Amino acid sequence: MTPGKAYLDTDTIRALAARTDAMGVWLVAHCWGVIAGSVALFAVWPNPLTALLAIVLIGSRQLGLAILMHEAAHNALFKTRWLNEFAGEWLCGRPILAELGSYRHYHLTHHRYTQTDKDPDLVLSSKFPTTRDSLRRKFIRDLTGQTGLRQLVGQIVMSFRLAGDDDAIEAANQDAAQAFKARDLWKSLPVFIGVALAMSLAGEWWYGLLFWLLPYLTWFQLVLRIRNIAEHGATEQSDNPLQNVRTTHAGPVARALVAPYWVNYHLEHHMVMHVPCWRLPRMHKALRDAGIGDRMRVSPNYGHALAEAGW
Fold first, then answer.
1. What is the dihedral of CA 238, 241, 243, 246, to 10 degrees?
2. For FRET with 287, which of 115, 149, 204, 248 sits at 20 to 30 Å CA-CA?
3. Rg (alpha carbons) of the chain, rounded to whole number
4. pLDDT(164) > 60
5. Which residue windows are transmembrane per the record (predicted)?
6. pLDDT more than 90, % of the chain
7. Which residues, 6+ apart, have CB-to-CB distance to 158 below 8 Å?
8. Which residues on neighbouring strands pair with residue 247, listed in sequence order?
9. pTM of the entire structure?
């Protein structure tokens, strides 16, 4: 049963779950618009500060693309099915070396068995709480590109290992570390390189390296980790949908740099997983109005969520 049905009536859920193609177009256009605008900002005012800002904003929007692919995995990005599949795959997933189909297979298993022994994400969340030193080492590896390079090399090796091996592909679909990665890298790599090449053609030859590859290897890895920690790190290992997942309040800066497209409303997403991301704040209010606000695991900000995880 959808957990939200225990607290919200059918008409409320139906209204919250309504999708529109127009909003899907806006979300995808906004994400790519921020990426293009970040590169343009540096092109107009080239200096170390605008370069750093562009890298951070683009890395955050690469997470944004992952979030929008996640929306498509739940058929919530577009109302029209073929638009949902096309945009989720080729405009959101493939540009960050991800794959909609394999991610959907993995992620729906996570929703079915959240924070239980059958949850494929449990290997990630069960590590928390940990120590501040452990988290610091992880964050340093992310920001210096070590995590990104290791995963990219692992993805390349995996794509060769899985070629034509259906059993190995099925096993890889349950690998939390590679949950959204493209199994057939040869389809995604040209798209990834194409984005970098477009940036270089629009500016200098090194734009693609600085503004697509570098954010992917650094800031994207950091905010992806923070997102994962905030969602299920140091929560109950149980089937209680109000305590085995966390919602984290996010102000304008956090939404711009760490939590784009309402990804911070994760408890609400688990309540009714096909509610579009842009309606999750409304769902948060509906749940509070239902009188369960004090029973929901909610952090006031990402600093608090990380502190619960050991920071």
1. 120
2. 115
3. 19
4. no
5. 24-45, 51-69, 191-214
6. 82
7. 172, 178, 181, 183, 185
8. 298
9. 0.93
pLDDT tens-place string over residues 256-311: 999 999 999 999 999 999 999 999 999 999 999 999 999 999 999 999 999 999 99
Q: Output the CA angle 123-128-134, nearest 5 degrees.
A: 105
Question: What string of H, E and C letters represents the secondary structure of the chain?
Answer: CCHHHHCCCHHHHHHHCCCCHHHHHHHHHHHHHHHHHHHHHHHHCCCHHHHHHHHHHHHHHHHHHHHHHHHHHCCCCCCCHHHHHHHHHHHHHHHHCECHHHHHHHHHHHHHCCCCCCCCCHHHHCCCCCCHHHHHHHHHHHHCCHHHHHHHHHHHHHHHHHCCCHHHHHHHCCCHHHCCECCCHHHHHHHHHHHHHHHHHHCCCCHHHHHHHHHHHCHHHHHHHHHHHHHHCCCCCCCCCCCCCCEECCCHHHHHHCCHHHCCCHHHHHHCCCCCHHHHHHHHHHHHHCCCHHHCCEECCHHHHHHHCCC
Helix axes 146-162, 219-232, angle to 10 degrees: 80
List Cα–Cα distances, 270 to 2, 16, 56, 107, 288, in angstroms. Answer: 8, 14, 28, 11, 15
pLDDT given for residue 7 in this prediction = 96
User: Exposed, middle or buried: residue 46 (CB in 10 Å: 0-12, 13-18, 19+)?
Assistant: exposed
- Alpha-carbon span 135 to 306, nearest angstrom: 9
**CB burial of residue 9 (10 Å; 0-12, 13-18, 19+):** exposed
> Which of these, 252, 276, 218, lies nearest to 84 by C-alpha position?
276
Which residue type is seen at 250?
A
pLDDT in tens, 113-128: 999 999 988 888 889 9
In this predicted structure, the answer to whether residue 169 has a pLDDT above a threshold of 50 is no
